[in-house]
């Protein structure tokens, strides 16, 4: 078995044990757990586009809207505050490249969830959402949560579960702010790495 | 070991390694990981009843209430909107059959958490909650999260953790809208399948 | 291998398989899964301090603020209600002892996330947050969620993921209300136990 691990660089934990159990109609996927942080069992680079409703004239394009107001804890410290307590619900577009989809082109996924700002002294957020895939490539979801430590160039969210093609997945999404336009648009680059997969 | 797996259809990953470690007072549970999506280590069918506060006359029965209002992103598109941004906190009853408990009968569990609507174009939600068990059968919690893609007949939430009798559990809850009554009641059928258990 | 398990009391699932795979620059951590609920692969006792904004004069010290109001479901039952539906965003201090940090002393971690009250009949809450470590001892995050069943002396939250030094961690945080001061301060003792680690 050491030879197998050395050649694959991924340890097929139960593969040998599971051989021959699956019938013709059964789901034949088997669990794979990465042997090291350097070796995810799956990797995808994705871009999340957050177009925030400005309250005036972008309802057609906006995919996110605040549902609570910043609290006084925020506004009492900075002239415009740090949005402490503002919670934003989103159904954002997710793409494989940096550009938004043109015309009828389908996005790679949607990101459905929310974030909120949670720091008095600077911009800092917390996210939880599902990546919802419904394309030729993938059907299923990945569920994420974690601190978006905006003072850091990159920050890691936990991928805590998955469904469909991502059945029972776990991993890490390393995010980076890739572009911003004023208050009402940001794009995150997400390096999505799974360390537990069923393949 | 291939013979063992073939007869149990569940792979006891660490059972052989863990034999003899637990003393008389120790917790003797051992970890079980399913070998295939077809073979959960535990299955339960449960019904979640959401009785939404109507703001008028159902405080005695209601178990859920909106804590934010739908945003303009919702109301600008449909005559009555799609509730985009409305977040509902709940402490819902969970039962083994479809009926609500009668009299003093205890529910199978409570579901404590929240959901919110997150789509401009149609009804679509996102859930996170704990199933809280405090019955003769079970004591402990299961923690869930994921997209409730209401356009799909069934949709999968991730079970990302558990406590007590469900210590360190992971799995999938497949939900289906089983009944609705106007805006203020729905019942979800939840096929709850665990693929990582301690038994 | 039975001898190994018996001596370590922790099962090194993939250690033997992974030997020799990591180069000089590679991340050499390997996955460890506990063999029993009695034997976490890591343990930490931490204290979470929640200083709630009182809306008047504690903006300098407050680390948490309500962003939604309790609903009528709460106030209709008790004279002062059970805060049903009140959601609080926090960036709380986390310490190793019970005392708040003095002067420039850094906390052990921050806890960033939110809780809300979800019961009509009594005080009961639901939490999700990240423990954010940025100290000499640790850099990284742990992500938690679960029901805070306030009628119970201790209650268990799920640790569903981790990053950095806590890469891919899972576990349980057993919390206990350690102190309260009126409505605007509480301290939780958190016994944080990991059962899945990379070491």
Can you describe this structure?
Three copies of one chain form a homotrimer. With 199 residues, chain A is mainly β. The first copy, chain A, has one domain (31-198): AOC barrel-like (Beta Barrel), CATH 2.40.480.10. The first copy, chain A, is 8% helix and 45% strand. The first copy, chain A, is built from three helices and ten strands; from the N terminus they run H-H-E-E-E-H-E-E-E-E-E-E-E. The first copy, chain A, has an eight-stranded antiparallel beta barrel. In chain A, strand 6 and strand 7 (139-148) form a beta hairpin. The longest helix of chain A is centred in the first third of the chain and has 7 residues, at 2-8. Mean pLDDT of chain A is 87; it is low at 1-24. Chains in contact: A-B, A-C, B-C. Chains A, B, C: Pfam families: Dirigent. Chains A, B, C: Its main location: secreted. Chains A, B, C: Homodimer. Chains A, B, C: InterPro entries: Allene_oxi_cyc_Dirigent, Dirigent.
Secondary structure layout plus pairing:
Three copies of one chain form a homotrimer.
Chain A: H1 2-8, H2 15-18, E1 31-33, E2 42-51, E3 64-66, H3 72-75, E4 87-95, E5 109-117, E6 125-134, E7 139-148, E8 155-164, E9 170-181, E10 185-198
Antiparallel strand pairs in A: 1-10, 2-4, 2-10, 3-4, 4-5, 5-6, 6-7, 7-8, 8-9, 9-10
């Amino acid at each position: 078995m050491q030879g197998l691990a050395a050649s694959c660089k991924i340890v097929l934990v139960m593969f040998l044990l599971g051989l021959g159990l699956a019938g013709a109609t059964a789901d034949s996927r088997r669990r794979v757990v990465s042997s090291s942080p350097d070796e995810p069992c799956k990797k995808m680079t994705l871009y999340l586009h957050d177009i925030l409703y400005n309250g005036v004239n972008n309802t057609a394009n906006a995919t996110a809207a605040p549902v609570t107001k910043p609290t006084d804890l925020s506004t009492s410290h900075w002239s415009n505050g740090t949005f402490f307590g503002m919670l934003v619900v989103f159904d954002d577009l997710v793409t494989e490249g940096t550009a938004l989809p043109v015309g009828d082109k389908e996005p790679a996924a949607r990101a459905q969830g929310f974030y909120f700002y949670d720091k008095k002294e600077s911009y800092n957020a917390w996210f939880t959402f599902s990546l919802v895939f419904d394309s030729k490539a993938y059907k299923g979801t990945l569920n994420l949560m974690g601190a978006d430590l905006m003072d850091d160039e990159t920050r890691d969210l936990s991928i805590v579960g998955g469904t469909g093609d991502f059945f029972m997945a776990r991993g890490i999404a390393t995010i980076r702010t890739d572009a911003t336009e004023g208050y009402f648009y940001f794009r995150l680059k997400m390096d999505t790495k799974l360390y537990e997969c069923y393949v």
